[in-house]
Write a structure and sequence with these properties.
By secondary structure, this protein is α/β, with parallel strands linked by helices. Among the domains are: 111-255 and 397-427, Vaccinia Virus protein VP39 (Rossmann fold, 3-Layer(aba) Sandwich); 294-376, no CATH class. Helices cover 43% and strands 11% of the residues. It has 17 helices and 9 strands. It has a 7-stranded mixed β-sheet with strand order 5-4-3-6-7-9-8, sandwiched between helices. Helix 8 links the parallel strand 3 (154-158) and strand 4 (177-181). Helix 13 (294-318) crosses helix 14 (337-348). The longest helix is centred in the last third of the chain and has 25 residues, at 294-318. It starts with 11 loop residues before the first helix and ends in a 9-residue tail after the last strand.
Length: 436
């Protein structure tokens, strides 16, 4: 196993404290909701920045959305952008050019020990996996093999689906594989793929939020989880640490899918920190669009512009400057015109509103408001990655407290998936794991 390329002497506690203070100091900026609030509190402090952002087009907002740090905007945007970049910095564990990816071929091979670099893989390993997902799996597997310092005895794929990730790792190293997945049909398909490849694997019907799944965890297990949602990966960290599992590799996703309205930090350091987060706050890191197609984006924009048009209408007609939550509507609702769309939302709230003089003019105002919203959202966009790193550091510090050596990095390019952060952890010894 090659030596790990971790950050030398990283003090995750110090990094967390710095991030915690910065996010707490600027929480009025990233907690502001331009979609629901017509005038944001921070605009009075920085009127030049507010005017500049409000004057930009929707196309300009879209162009800057995924990299707001590069935007040349008035003070204090540039200063906040520099701090965002610095506070979010993590090592890159990928080559960036795809040269380390395993390459598929049509013949079957026996499992063999490899780090995954430039390895030819059987077609069965890539069958039915979209290209982007295969690249994510391949980069994840390569990073795990490079970062772990101890040999792997038994893979366990958490929320496995068909077990594509675990199967690739087991094929590379020849170790046995256990997959935990609640969908029995996916388990059957994964078991058949493993059988055809000659991999020793078992696929268990198990909901990872239930005790039966936790009972499968053993100290010799090396657990992997690619894009496990909030409560799923938090449960994994807690249960794996409780069982003293040898190794963990987790790429978190959907931090806001938790079982409580308030975020409950895992680490003792985060629990005494300044920042307190709601489930709604946890959605900020997820507000990116990398893979959505042009048609999907167009329909999304139309729906949002019409919702904003309804918001303008209901505020003016009621004489009450307050946002009314709008329920999700099927895509077919967009085909019936803006008048029907807005009337439907008014009926949902049991409102009888005086109709606007011109639906066309109201729609135009909705699109103008959408352009302003998207541009104003570029400011909280500076805090998306810092907040995600804060959450990842909470998980890292928890595992350190539980007796693990932890490293954090990026397993693939951001353009491949915004959720490209990876936590790898190894138990420091075979002794009993400490409890908090």
């Amino acid at each position: 196993m090659p030596a790990a390329t971790a950050e030398a002497g990283t003090d995750y506690a110090a990094r967390f404290s710095q991030l915690d203070a910065w996010l707490h100091q600027h929480q009025a900026l990233w907690r502001a909701k331009p979609f629901t609030t017509v005038q944001l509190p921070w605009e009075a402090d920085w009127p030049e920045l507010a005017t500049w952002l409000r004057g930009r087009t929707l196309e300009q907002a879209e162009a800057a959305h995924n990299q707001p740090q590069l935007l040349d905007a008035p003070h204090p945007f540039a200063s906040l952008a520099r701090q965002s970049i610095e506070l979010s910095r993590l090592p890159q564990w990928h080559g960036g050019d795809g040269s380390s990816l395993p390459e598929p071929h049509t013949g079957l091979s026996s499992p063999r020990s490899t780090t995954g670099a430039c390895a030819k893989v059987p077609e069965l390993l890539t069958r039915h996996i979209p290209g982007r997902k295969w690249q994510q799996i391949s980069h994840f597997a390569t990073s795990v093999n490079r970062q772990w310092r101890q040999p792997t005895a038994h893979w366990l794929d958490w929320c496995a689906g068909k077990g594509h990730l675990g199967r690739l790792l087991a094929w590379q190293g020849g170790q046995p594989l256990t997959c935990l997945e609640r969908d029995a049909a996916l388990n059957r398909q994964g078991a058949e793929l493993g059988r055809q490849l000659g991999i020793t694997s078992q696929h268990l019907d198990a909901d990872v939020l239930e005790a039966y799944a936790w009972q499968q965890l053993q100290p010799e297990h090396s657990i992997v989880a690619l894009h496990a949602c909030g409560q799923l990966h938090m449960t994994l960290l807690q249960q794996a640490a409780a069982q003293g599992c040898a190794q963990l590799a987790v790429s978190p996703c959907c931090y806001n899918r938790i079982d409580s309205a308030e975020y409950r930090p895992l680490s003792s350091i985060a629990r005494v920190g300044q920042l307190r987060l709601t489930r709604d706050d946890l959605g900020l890191p997820l507000q990116e669009s990398i893979t959505a197609g042009q048609r999907v984006r167009r329909l999304r924009d139309q729906s949002m512009a019409w919702r904003l048009a309804f918001d303008i209408w209901q505020r003016q007609a009621r004489g009450i400057d307050r946002y009314l939550p709008t329920p999700s509507r099927p895509q077919s609702a967009l085909g019936q015109g803006i008048a029907h769309f807005c009337r439907d939302l008014a009926a949902h709230h049991q409102l009888q509103l005086r109709e606007p003089d011109s639906w066309e003019q109201l729609e135009e105002q909705g699109w103008q408001r959408l352009a302003q919203v998207r541009n104003l959202e570029l400011l909280p966009g500076l805090f998306r990655r810092p907040l995600e790193v804060w959450l990842l550091l909470d998980r890292a510090l928890y595992l350190e407290e539980m007796g693990y050596q932890v490293r954090l990095g990026q397993f693939c390019e951001y353009q491949l998936t915004p959720r490209n952060l990876l936590l790898v952890a190894e138990r420091r010894s075979a002794q009993t794991t400490p409890t908090l």
